[in-house]
Amino acid sequence: MTNYNLAKNYLDEEKTEWKPMRDGAGIGIAELGGEKENVVVLAADTAGSSRAKYFAEKFPARFIQCGVQEQNMVGVSAGLAYQGKVPYAITYAAFLVGRPWEPIRTTIAYPQNHVIFVSSHAGLATGPDGPTHQMTEDISIMRCLPNFTVIAPCDYEQARKAVKAAYDLKGPVYIRNAREKTPVFTTEDSPYEAGKAQVLREGKDITAIGHGYMVYWLLKIAEELKDRISIEVINLHTIKPLDEQAIIESAKKTGRVFTCEDHNVVGGMGSAVAELLSQKYPVPMKLHGVYDIFAESGSVKDLWKKYKLDEEGTKEALLEFLNKSK
Amino acid sequence: MPTPSDSKIKELEKKANNIREDLVKMLIESGSGHSAGPLGQADIFTVFYFHVLKHDPQNPMWPERDRLILDVGHCVPIRYVAMAHAGYFPKKELMTLRKIGSRIEGHPNYLRMPALETTSGPLGEGLSQACGFAMAARMDGTDLDYHIWCIGSDGEQQEGMTWEAAMFAAKYRLSNLTYIIDRNNIQIDGYTEDIMPLEPLREKYEAFGWHVMEMNGHDMREIISTLEESKSIQEKPVLIIANTTPGKGIEFIENRFGWHGVPPGAGPEDVVPKEEQAKRALEELRTLRGRIEAEHD
Ligand SMILES: Cc1ncc(C[n+]2csc(CCOP(=O)(O)OP(=O)(O)O)c2C)c(N)n1
Ligand SMILES: [Mg+2]
Q1: B34 CA: nearest ligand 1 atom
Q2: For chain A, which ranges sit under pLDDT 50?
Q3: I want to staple B150 with a disulfide (CB 3.0 to 4.6 A). Which of A75, A264, B69, B154 is the partner?
Q4: Residue A289 has what pLDDT?
Q5: Pairwise CB contact (< 8 Å): B98 & A99
Q6: What is the predicted pLDDT for the residue at B297?
Q7: Which regions in chain B score pLDDT beneath 50?
Q8: In CATH terms, is domain B6-296 a member of 3.80.30.20?
Q9: What burial class does residue B247 get, using C-beta atoms within 10 Å of its C-beta: 0-12 exposed, 13-18 middle, 19+ buried?
Q10: Chain B within 8 Å of A79 (Cβ-Cβ)?
């Protein structure tokens, strides 16, 4: 089994540091800017909060402030890419990929332009701004676009690596980040390869697949329940292209698959896994996440609790599925 | 409408100040939310809910009410406070801003409070909807019964959709529509003219076929007369450029874009440290209240 070099004592929540993925992504892009001269960053009046500012401060000549113009930002990114630049377009998920979806389809996805979309404010982990800003459909609308790679890092450190890995991929990439602080359980030394699912914990009774911060809950749940049930935990950070082999292998071993995500269950990562398994290796599945609703304003903690996306809610859903699929 | 008396103007000024105080208390309690834009729009909202708007808080969906559409959704806290003062809902509910289960969410949610008329937050989507309201009124033959008001921001002039709607309103001569732009010169990342210049804004709208007016968004008399006059313009949609001071009433917030999206207690510390911001903000508004009352005597 791969050594993932997870943080020391990562299962102890008290000892685990919490930092926002958007910070990791912003810092990673600024670091990359020092290595690669054709990296250009575009912002749409949220350079501060979506962390494009780290790059902007270091490389002002390669920073483009578009103002509140997401559609224009997409078109300009495409033009830059045609000319050999590697544009990173950064803002809140709803506005980054929701607002200008068709221009992304035509000017970026179809001609396979190598543009990297880096979001903040994905999921209910956006908090009190409410449903207009809590983007819970971004994976659905991005993974249905041909040629796109879709990545949802599990924490700050992984976000930092993912934005760099995206530079070496071909074609367009979407990287999804949460606004809120979440546990940092991987480390600088943890390996990262886009497209390769990470089996963070081996098990034999059930496969639990997550992306984003919910992978951390899964690790804790697996530890807590280890005397009752052996849970295999997979961090499916790359949702497209799917690591089919890893998922099928695990399904063969455990015979049932639970997925969870801070995203609509319609069209999300769980759907991607179901599309694969239903055709190549059908097993009982449970898709946990945001159940096709718009949530509401509230603190992230309150939202997690009410919509069952916290550790407790996730555990409940998993146990219910276990009982039903016995 | 007759010109308002001096005492009416004073009454509105006092009301606006009370509304600012409640706004600040609400933002402090919430611990999250926008300060600068809402404070700058306090006078305009006060004039709307306490003088110009045709509405009935006891019958919020009265078919003949004026429709007030808030394009710039993040400024909704000031609307909530004005509505609570006008009697739409209990003032104590203001303390639930942005909390789970609340009707008054971070951005306007029409389903939880239909009197908000629309759901908004993503910028630049309001004027198109206002055009739809105006077209429906015309189709129903009710365009003389009530007026459509839309409040937008300068930041959202950068969105293409705003200009699509601007063309549309002119084509259909939507004179039952008045669009007010809160020209406060700030957006999130800086001053509008640095981030993505808008000027000459007036000439742009005129070239698009609009009748354009301007007003000082803190002068009660001027707000009233400009809004009233806008209703009498025929054959063209009307834009009112409302020149305002973001953060109006609290000196350490005024004109600083760093205060766009944070409440007192979480703002930039260039003038007042975080832990003193709440107290200082309320003190400044109390002083203002004293001044308005003294002038009134
Ligand atoms: C489509 C869209 N893009 C981005 C945002 C994030 N955002 C919120 S307010 C704002 C700009 C603020 O400028 P303005 O509208 O003038 O508001 P003010 O700061 O004056 O209150 C931005 C970019 C948004 N709400 N909607
Ligand atoms: Mg503004």
Answers
A1: 21
A2: none
A3: B69
A4: 98
A5: no
A6: 64
A7: none
A8: no
A9: buried
A10: no
Say whether B171 sits in a helix, a strand or coil: helix
Cβ–ligand 1 contact at B40 (below 6 Å):
no
Query: For residue B1, what pLDDT is reported?
Result: 63
Taking the C-alpha atoms of residue A276 and residue A57, their distance in angstroms, rounded to an integer, is: 43
Q: What is the 3-state secondary structure (H, E, C) of chain A?
A: CCCCCCCCCCCCHHHCCEEEHHHHHHHHHHHHHHHCCCEEEEECCCCCCCCCHHHHHHCHHHEEECCCCHHHHHHHHHHHHHCCCEEEEEEEHHHHHHCCHHHHHHHHHCCCCCCEEEEECECHHHCCCCCCCCECCHHHHHHCCCCCEEECCCCHHHHHHHHHHHHCCCCCEEECCCCCEEECCCCCCCCCCCCCCEEEECCCCEEEEECCCHHHHHHHHHHHCCCCCCEEEEECCEEECCCHHHHHHHHHHHCCEEEEEEEECCCCHHHHHHHHHHHHCCCCEEEEEECCCCCCCCCHHHHHHHCCCCHHHHHHHHHHHHHHCC
Per residue in B175-198, pLDDT tens?
999 999 999 999 999 999 999 999
Q: Tell me how close the Cα of A174 comes to any Cα of chain B, in angstroms.
A: 20
How much distance in Å is there from the Cα of B276 to the middle of ligand 2?
26
On whether any CB of chain B is under 8 Å from the CB of A129, the answer is yes
Give pLDDT tens digits for A140-198: 999 999 999 999 999 999 999 999 999 999 999 999 999 999 999 999 999 999 999 99
**Domain ranges across chain B:** 6-296
pLDDT of residue A326: 75
Q: Give me ligand 2 centre to Cα B275, in Å.
A: 26
Q: How far is the CA of B123 from the centre of ligand 1 (A)?
A: 6
Asked if B122's CB is within 8 angstroms of A128's CB, the reply is: no
Minimal-distance CA residue to ligand 1 atom 24: B122
Is the CB–ligand 1 distance for residue B130 below 6 Å?
A: no
Q: List the domains of chain A with CATH numbers.
A: 16-183 (3.40.50.970), 191-324 (3.40.50.920)
How high is the pLDDT of residue A189? Answer: 97
pLDDT, residue A1, reads 78
